[in-house]
C-alpha cells in the first residue's frame, strides 16, 4: 500500500480549516449590529405585517441545505463510487481510498459553497442595512410631532410631507427583532438554500451523468465521416456513405451522444424545486422583496458552481470524478512559471493507486464502455 504524504494530508486539513474559518467569519458578522438605513414612516413598501414564526426556520434551513446534501453526498460516495470503470481485481484498500477521496471532495465543495455564501450574505446584509417589508410593524414608531422633529434625518417638511427618520424613533424594546428588520438585502434563506441544493444538483448530475447531450468539438465525426457507422455501411458505395450531406452523416453525428433516461430529471430538478419553495416563503412571510430573493438565489448559484468546479471535473467531460489530489511537493502552493498543482512526472507513473476516470486526452466520451482503464484518477 502506497504511503500517503503527510505534507499533502496536512495541506487538505488546512483547506478544511480555511473553509471553517470562512463560515466562522460569517457567524461573527451575524452577531454584530447592522447598519440602520433611514426610512419613511409613510412608506407602504415597509408596512407589511410582522409574522413572528417563519414557515422555514433557520434550523430547518440548515437541515435542508447543509445536512441533507451532506448525507446524500456521503451515501452516493460510499455506494456508487468507484463505479463500473474500476479495473477488476483492484485491492479493497484502493477502492476504499477512492471512496474516501470522492466523499472528502464532495464535502469540501459543499462546505466551500455554503461558507462563502454565508459570509457574503451576512456581510452585505450588515453593510447595507436595508429595511425589510415588515419594518414598520417591528419598529412601532412614535409618530408624535415632537418625536418626528427629533428623529427626522431627511425629507421635506411641508404640511405632512414625506420625511426620513432614523431607527431611534422605534419603540420596539427587543433589539434582536429591530436589528433583524434591517437585514433585507439580500435573502439569506434564498442564497443558502440555492448554494447547498444547487451544489447537490451539480454533484448528482456529475455522478449519474445527467446532462443535456452535446457534440464534442473534437468529435472524430469531423475527421472521418465513416467512423462509428454500422459495418454493413462502411464499404457501401451508395450515396448514403459517400455524400457528406446524406442521412448517413447525420446518423454518425447523432451517435456521438444520447439523452439520459428521463426519470433522472427528478434527482436533478428536485433540489432546485426545494430551493425555489424555500425562497418563495421569504416573500409570503413578508421578509424580503422579489429583488432580494433573486439576488440571493444568484449568489447561491454562483457559490455552488465555484464550490463544485473547485474540486470536480466538468459534468459533461469528467465522467463523474472529482479532481485528483495535488502533488505533495506542490501541496502548499506554487511559484510563478509553474503550470498547475500536479507534477507531470506523476502522471507518467506506472503504479497508480487506482486507474479509473476519464483519460487525460478526453478520448472517453462515455462511462464503463471499455474493459480497459479509462485513464488516471490516482488517489
Can you describe this structure?
- The chain has helices at 6-30, 58-79, 92-128, 135-139, 145-151, 175-180, 188-207, 231-234, 239-242, 247-254, 265-284, 290-311, 344-347; strands at 152-155, 163-165.
- With 379 residues, it is an all-alpha fold.
- A two-stranded antiparallel ribbon has the order 1-2.
- β1 (152-155) and β2 form a beta hairpin.
- The chain is elongated and about 85 Å long.
Which ranges are low-confidence, i.e. pLDDT below 50, for 5 or more consecutive residues?
Answer: 236-244, 350-378
Strand-residue fraction? Answer: under 5%
Strand order of the largest sheet: 1-2
Distance between the termini: 12 Å
Write down the overall geometry: elongated
**Biggest sheet layout:** 2 strands, antiparallel
| Helix share bin | 40-55%
**Rg on CA atoms, Å:** 28 Å
Provide key terms for this protein.
two-stranded antiparallel ribbon, 2 strands, 379 residues, mainly alpha, 2% strand, single chain
